[in-house]
Automatic annotation (TrEMBL):
GO terms for molecular function: ATP binding; sequence-specific DNA binding. The modification 4-aspartylphosphate is found at residue 52. This is Sigma-54-dependent Fis family transcriptional regulator. Keywords: Activator, ATP-binding, DNA-binding, Nucleotide-binding, Phosphoprotein, Transcription, Transcription regulation, Two-component regulatory system. GO terms for biological process: phosphorelay signal transduction system; regulation of DNA-templated transcription. Residues 2-114 form the Response regulatory domain. It comes from the Bacteria. Pfam families: AAA_lid_14 (PF25601), HTH_8 (PF02954), Sigma54_activat (PF00158). Residues 120-349 form the Sigma-54 factor interaction domain. It comes from Bradyrhizobium guangdongense.
């Protein structure tokens, strides 16, 4: 967590600095806007700006926007003047806190910005295997590719890998390749020199240099333009970058973690992603299963989010009722952990009584999740698939095979030839299986259809 404090406030911010550092933040000071911009352009970067409300916050916001620097601003002042707070929020600040600072309030603001509450919560064996692999490779400098559907927690896992590496005390810098226009992404990644293009009013250090010594997360890398991919490949291979408009290479020391919700092998075949870049990034692949394939994680995460949002909203911590747990467990969660988190946030706010019941498990539109309108065919197919899956658990392969053969034979009205074709086995294999079942006393559908006989042939016939 990197904090930039802008202003002096007669020494009041000294206390804020100590509180921030006690909470693990790296603190840099700037007396005014100009000095703050020099710090941000120079590569130190900031995850949060704590700004004296007496300064022109709107002007600072406009300067940040003009140079495409993204960092939230929290205004602070030595007064509880409501008008000053409202003016700061209107000017672009995310929050206003009075000084002298309250230690718990500063800590809460830092935690919210750093998103430290995004804990890695899991119980399912499928996720445990991914975490075990992450632990094994975290201490290396190998590039890591994290794949999975949107909302599965790819960035959370990336931060986990960083936190367990030798670079844990160095910066973790994240950039969303899908959220930044193509013509700006190169400058964001590699920085630029003054005058390199219209609007480049000063040298700007990019994310590669900001992350030096630490980890750079390239989120949704599949959305990066192929032309820029070649420059990225050189940076990874040679550990040097070229600023836009620069004349000499700049060495960097970083670990790369990339994420994608697309199949990059398909993107390679389509010509939208370089194969050599994929090989460089995909030294280790951490594939996060969708939440529907991690059933044991659903209730574990749900309880985690209930506790989190009960505390955040100052409401009683209610247990999840048995019926609500059933609703949660049987939902498909197409939006994965992100959808579950939003659902439990709503549940915490809407719940009444002593428990969180199914009436509080709602869709964004306010419908009960278990009563939400679903196309009948989809609902029937989903239910049928779940019933089949549950019916298979705990049974042997031999038992499942026997029932499949007998049910197929029944469906074919006893016609062995048709049944064998459907099953994809030879008529001889089918007859051997049926003789085996008949010897065990299991009723067999009588032979029927053209060319079929009512009596089972002898084994080997």
């Amino acid at each position: 967590m990197r904090l930039l404090i802008v202003g002096t406030l007669k020494g009041q911010l000294t206390t804020a600095t100590k509180i921030a550092m006690d909470n693990g933040a790296t603190v840099t000071h700037a007396e005014d806007h100009e000095q703050a911009m020099r710090v941000l352009r120079g590569g130190k970067g900031a995850d949060l700006l704590l700004v004296d409300v007496a300064l022109d916050i709107r002007d600072l916001v406009m300067r940040l926007e003009a140079e495409h620097i993204h960092a939230p601003i929290v205004a602070c002042g030595i007064t509880n003047d409501a008008r000053a707070a409202v003016a700061a929020i209107h000017a672009g600040a995310k929050e206003y806190i009075p000084l002298p600072p309250d230690p718990e309030l500063i800590a809460a603001v830092l935690a919210a910005v750093a998103n430290d509450s995004r804990e890695l919560v899991y119980r399912d064996d499928a996720m445990a295997r991914v975490i075990k692999l992450a632990q094994q490779i975290a201490g290396s400098d190998a590039s890591v590719m994290i794949t999975g559907e949107s909302g599965t927690g790819k960035e959370v896992l990336a931060r986990y890998v960083h936190s367990r590496s030798a670079r844990a005390k160095r910066p973790f810098i994240s950039i969303n390749c899908a959220a930044i226009p193509e013509h700006l992404l190169e400058s964001e990644l590699f920085g630029h020199e003054k005058g390199a293009f219209t609007g480049a009013i000063a040298r700007r250090i990019g994310k590669f240099e900001e992350a030096t010594g630490g980890t750079l997360l390239l989120d949704e890398i599949s959305e990066m333009d192929v032309r820029l991919q070649s420059k990225l490949l050189r940076a990874i291979q040679e550990r040097v970058i070229d600023r836009v408009g620069g004349t000499k290479p700049v060495p960097v020391d970083i670990r790369i973690i990339a994420t994608s919700n697309r199949n990059l092998a398909d993107a390679v075949r389509e010509g939208t992603f370089r194969e050599d870049l994929l090989f460089r990034l995909n030294v280790v692949n951490l594939k996060i299963p969708p939440l529907r394939e991690r059933p044991a994680d659903i209730l574990e995460l749900a309880q985690h989010f209930v506790k989190k949002y009960a505390e955040a909203n100052g409401v009683p911590l209610r247990p999840i009722s048995a019926e609500a747990r059933r609703v949660l467990s049987t939902n498909r969660w197409q939006g994965n952990v992100r959808e579950l988190e939003n659902t439990m946030h709503r549940a915490v706010l809407m719940a009444q009584g002593d428990e969180i019941g199914p009436d509080a498990i709602l869709t964004p539109d306010g419908d009960r999740l278990d009563l939400a309108k679903t196309p009948p065919a989809v609902a029937h197919a989903t239910m049928a698939a779940e019933q089949v899956t549950r019916a298979l658990v705990g049974r042997t392969v031999a038992d499942v095979e026997r029932d499949l053969i007998l049910e197929t034979l029944k469906h074919c009205l006893g016609n062995r030839t048709h049944a064998a074709n459907i099953l994809g086995i030879s008529i001889r294999t089918l007859r051997n299986k049926l003789n085996e079942y008949a010897d065990g006393g299991i009723p067999i559908t009588p032979a029927g259809g053209p060319g079929e006989h009512s009596r089972l042939p002898m084994i080997g016939a």
